[in-house]
Amino acid sequence: MAKWEILNIDPWIKDYEDDINLRMSEYEKAKNRLIGEGQTLSDFANAHHYYGFHKTKTGWIYREWAPTADGLYLIGDFNDWDRHAHPMKKINDEDWEISIKGIKTIPHGSRLKVLVDANGKISDRIPLFAKRVERDENGDFAAVMYNPRSKFKWSDADFKIKNDDLLVYEAHIGMAGEEGKVSTYREFEKNILPRIKKAGYNTVQLMAIAEHPYYGSFGYQVSNFYAPSSWYGEINDLKSLVNTAHEMGLNVIMDLVHSHAVKNTIEGINEFDGTDYQFFHQGENGNHPDWDSKLFDYAKPGVAHFLLSNVKYWLEEFHFDGFRFDGVTSMIYKNHGRGISFDHYDKYFSMNTDIEAINYLQMANELAREVKEDVITIAEDMSAMPGMCLPISKGGIGFDYRLAMGMPDFWERTLKKRDEDWDLSNMWYELSTHRPEERRIAYVESHDQALVGSKTIIFTLADQEMYWHMNKDDDNYIVERAIALHKMIRWITITMGSDGYLNFMGNEFGHPEWIDFPREGNGYSFDYAKRQWSLLDNNNLKYEYLANFDKEMLGFIEKYKQLGNMIFRLWIDNDRKVIAYRNKDIVYIYNFHPTNSYDSFAVPIHDMGKFKVVMDTDEVKFGGKGRISHEYIYNTERLAGTDYDGIKIYIPARTALALEKCDNL
User: Fold this and answer.
1) Which of 255, 366, 380, 508 is catalytic?
2) Is 380 labeled as catalytic in the residue annotation?
3) pLDDT, tens digit, for every residue of 511-566?
4) How many domains are there within the chain?
5) Which of 10, 326, 354, 356 is flagged as catalytic?
6) Catalytic site residue 17?
7) Model confidence over 610-623: pLDDT tens digits?
8) Rounded Cα–Cα distance for residues 603 and 411 (Å)
9) Are 161 and 314 in contact (CB under 8 A)?
10) Is residue 598 assigned to a domain?
11) What is the CATH classification number for the domain harbouring 75?
């Protein structure tokens, strides 16, 4: 028996036992270098409780991590930005400290920076552990003392994290409103959370939470890792949002960017102590070739201390229920996975594999579970690294889920083909194939698929016809096709053996067009950086059909427990464009043919019993024609010319239906 269970779970990995042993031995070594005997990672990950500003009995103490700096001085409103009035003392080889008498000496709202003298260069920097960072009217970012009179009072003590059957609503606070502006935490709490709950989702995934100087970066160029973004409001506003979501029964997970950092030195952490290697790999290895950003050196104890403490900070301070780890593929390969087709296990286990980054991710997962037992962790990994979503105890990396990133790529490729050329066998393979015992989040489109240069799925299908033909009394073939396929694509994606599902904000009702944040190239326009909720709220428009379907689809998934199951292929007829499969007691039949309906299509079920349609995409409330009976009982029979049982059923073109086994009728 192999030492690590992953070698028994995945038969293809047995030839790489030495690589798994190396992964795990290096993990133990890395962890032991950080924590003392008898300690846990949670005991170690407390940098935020030591560094930064903290109250004392007599005032404030401020500590900073700047190993190679020659001098540090605290400056700000409180001392009229006197550059030498408050020198900091170096208390060991890496840390600096200063005590300030009197809490009121640095009042709430004071702007602060730290002057760093390093390598003959003097620069004004934002403290590394700043909890609040704001931009003034001149565009200058500075730390801000956040010490409100009243502490936020949480009321979510009874909330229990739901870590199974995730239905994830990916959202961006700033673009969540309909007005041409950056929306706020409070607006999201008041206006958007109720929509998410009503739509049937159970998990909110918030993007762009950590501070980022450039709004148009979508939050992926993080500058201040301990500061919730001030683009959307105050610290307590974010806490209130999370608290309210918990009161609604919603998980809240954060899009955590530990794969890279903004290269800015004025706003960010780059070259804080005067070197390019305090946080990052030295020289060119510290620069991401595509993202124009900096790359962490995860092997350094100080970096691990900073990042692991950051994981704990967001869980503790803001009650987040977990994370979607961004850019995992970039982290775990030294060439960041660029230009690689991961079609052989040799590409997962080679000198290109970044063991130190993998070890960091293992520690981040272990730590998160020490802080919150039921925490949710999701990996954004396009390479399908073996063991990504297996427990560390089994030789895995420890994530709960991976994003099934091949699915949206498959749909993007498929939608470029004529309907008659869709390959249903390939559809089955792309949507159903997954690593054994590794859970995945299925999705048709996230924010990535709608960024400028691309379009939402519905807009890819209907394009400009959506501008003119979305009234319910307006018959239009292109829009009708788009609505039919939009429903079928989402339904087959969520039901074909996935363990969870993700949708980006607004796509549940077929939000048109694309996403483009304000930037110089578009005249700093908000036209495509908002959500047009009025389209959904107008009962005369067809968007309501798609929202109705999405809500009932999610309810159907939960009612019949359709996530996390083994599915069984029943039939694929690529010529007639019909695919059928079974998930527990539900039989799904899809007719993707653009024109052909079938009056008495024989579907093998390999089971004796009675079946009844319980949901279909052709229902009138979903924008269909209502051609499928939900009352008729289908009795299985031996199909002519075969040795198996099945049913004969009417399947209209571009329609999907689900039948429940109901022998008790």
Assistant:
1) 380
2) yes
3) 999 999 999 999 999 999 999 999 999 999 999 999 999 999 999 999 999 999 99
4) 2
5) 326
6) no
7) 999 999 999 999 99
8) 25
9) no
10) yes
11) 2.60.40.10
